[in-house]
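Handout, section 3.2

Students often ask what a structure token actually looks like in practice. Rather than define it abstractly, here is a full record for Pilus assembly protein PilN. The first block is the sequence as you would receive it.
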Amino acid sequence: MARINLRPWREELRAEKQRQFLVMLAGALIVGAGLVFLWQSHVQGLIDHQESRNSYIENAMKDLEEQIAEIEDLKERREELLSRMQVIQDLQGQRPVIVRAFDEMVQTLPDGLFYTQLEKSGDQVSIVGMAESNSRISSLMRNFERSDWFAEPNLTNVSAADEQRSGYSRFNLSVQQVVPDEDEAESEQEQ
């Protein structure tokens, strides 16, 4: 007997192939989605890693900037301290000079003359005083010229004194203070 297949086998085969195609398509989509997810996860991991490195670098830069600012502050303090120390050393070095200058002022002072005001600005010493006569003022200027500690006496004003000191002349004089070499000062002290 002849077998006749009346079933629509071609349509079933087509439907089966279409189902297999859809399953393969769904599988490919799932695998593709999984690969995209893995790729995105990998890229996001790289981005997160780079962002963490960037934030580490930014934090390190902030720390370094703070340290640089602290170093600059310390350098400024150091410079201030060094300048203060220099001023103190200069003052310590000038202490004997000031004493010697005052001693020299007393030694140059002739009889019949006295100072009423002394003012020092830099190396310039301004003197206001009273003298019995103009010859005493001249003698004072000669003494300043001979002194190793003073130079260039300049008389700016001579006037009659007030009524309380009749017979006296008031004078204004300026003189340069000079610090002699140590050898000259020592030889002068020995004399």
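Discussion prompt for tutorial groups: Residues 8 and 117 are 137 Å apart (CA to CA). How would you have guessed this from the sequence alone?
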